[in-house]
Design goal:
A hairpin with a 2-residue loop joins strand 11 (229-238) and strand 12. The chain is α+β, with helices and mostly antiparallel strands. The chain has helices at residues 109-117, 123-126, 146-154, 182-189, 193-209, 277-296, 338-355, 390-393; strands spanning 54-61, 67-68, 76-77, 87-88, 97-98, 142-145, 163-170, 173-179, 210-211, 224-225, 229-238, 241-248, 251-252, 265-272, 302-308, 313-321, 364-369, 376-380.
């Protein structure tokens, strides 16, 4: 009989003394597990329950990263008539490109601002008929970004990049925010112009396929500004964990009015054209895994990929249905399995709940993972990794605009 992963399954969870990262169990009386194995074989069980994601809101970010509680930045997908469109992804890189400063770490700030503007989405905050909130809890287990969950989901098959996730328990909800690793920081600061141009090409591809208005047409002659964005906010549940997370949405398919968010959303991707069987194998094994995870989590059903040649020109388009992607890999030996990804994510969230027990917005638990190793953690109460701002802590259960506990006013939103 198959069973679900359980945080108390001792053979799978090696304990360490609190705050340390050593492999052995000590007789400390602390029964909590302190490391989590990542080997895929541990999680090759039946698919866990994952509730159909429901969009509970959205927000837009303008060219100055100002948040608006609406869909003004939502764009509309316009497929070209030719499946070999010859899109030049380098066009505008030198003279029509405004790049967001990715050294500025926004953490969960935009999601938190959205929560302050949408207390009614959390009934226990709104109260009845305008009465005060009946409780000081969101009644949501986890709040985070979709991108953070994508990294967790793909961890069992990742062999290059590690990660750091800070988690804070505040009034019964676990907030999870990624921390940039030293390796990632070095890679970001040492990017070559060619690497920057490839990153730009992904945004340029969106410009070729997206119109600002439902009845409009794409305008690839405009400026590419990566500060701008549209994000959906969804609520779902993975087994026993309730989740609210936000993720950026590339565009909307407006061809079928019966489709409601997030079922009407489309993800746009670019990749290098493949010329050999080995390239195709690596594409299915590594890139399709991340594409699938990113779209599966919020319930985005469709991915449109543009394949570029070495000159940076898109020479072909292909549409992938998110729920059918795993069929392309399921017969390959040693390839990734959706059930493994979801079971591991479920186990990680259970691990977080088991480890993080101190409800204090000033305390952060830093979960760390490197390829080939178990997930470990350290506890930080010195504010080094704290990320919940005073303007949120002091306002989420009170009146907007009042001073937070750290003397911070809610930023203009």
């Amino acid at each position: 009989m198959e069973r679900r992963l359980n945080a108390n399954d001792d053979p799978w969870w090696r304990g360490v003394k609190r705050g340390e990262q050593c492999p052995s169990r000590r007789n400390t009386g602390d029964t909590r597990a302190h490391s989590l194995p990542v080997m895929p074989a541990h999680y090759d069980l039946k698919f866990p329950d994952y509730r159909q994601p429901v969009e509970i809101g959205c927000f837009s970010l303008d060219s100055h990263r100002q948040l608006f509680n609406d869909d003004r930045q939502l764009r509309f997908c316009k497929m070209p008539p030719d499946k070999k469109p010859r899109f030049n992804l380098r066009d505008g890189f030198k003279d029509r490109f405004i790049k967001r400063d990715d050294s500025v770490k926004e953490k969960l700030d935009h999601v938190l601002k959205w929560i302050l503007l949408n207390r009614q989405k959390f009934p226990t905050l709104a109260g009845d008929r305008g009465s005060p909130a009946v409780t000081n809890q969101l009644h949501t287990d986890f709040i985070t970004w979709r991108g953070h969950l994508t990294k967790i989901l793909t961890t069992p098959y990742e062999n290059r990049e590690g990660w750091l996730m800070a988690v804070t328990l505040f009034n019964g909800t676990y907030y999870m925010s990624e921390v940039e690793t030293e390796e990632a920081r070095c890679q970001r600061e040492q990017r070559t112009e060619q690497q920057e141009e490839i990153l730009y090409g992904g945004y340029k591809f969106e410009q070729y396929l997206c119109a600002d208005k439902a009845e409009g047409s794409p305008d690839p002659s405009g400026v590419v500004n990566t500060n701008e964005g549209f994000c959906c906010v969804v609520r779902t549940r993975l087994d026993g964990h309730s989740l609210v997370f936000s993720g950026e949405v590339d565009c909307k398919d407006n061809s079928d009015p019966r489709l409601k968010p997030p079922q009407c959303y489309v993800e746009l991707k670019t990749s290098r054209e493949m010329y050999t069987p080995n390239q195709e194998k690596n594409f299915r094994r590594y890139k399709l895994l991340k594409w699938w995870a990113q779209s599966f989590l919020p319930g985005v059903p469709q991915i449109i990929a543009g394949f570029r040649d070495d000159s940076g020109t898109v020479i072909s388009l292909q549409t992938f249905e998110t729920m059918k992607i795993h069929h392309l890999v399921k017969n390959e030996r040693g390839c990734w399995k959706p059930a493994v990804c979801l079971n591991f994510c479920n186990a990680f969230l259970s691990f977080v709940k088991q480890v993080v027990t101190l409800d204090n917005h000033r305390v952060a638990t830093l979960f760390s993972w490197e390829p080939g190793k178990d997930i470990t953690y350290t506890l930080h109460s010195d504010g080094a990794f704290s990320f919940l701002p005073g303007w949120y802590v002091g306002n989420v259960f009170g009146q907007s605009g009042t001073l937070g506990t750290a003397g911070e006013k809610v930023p203009d939103i």
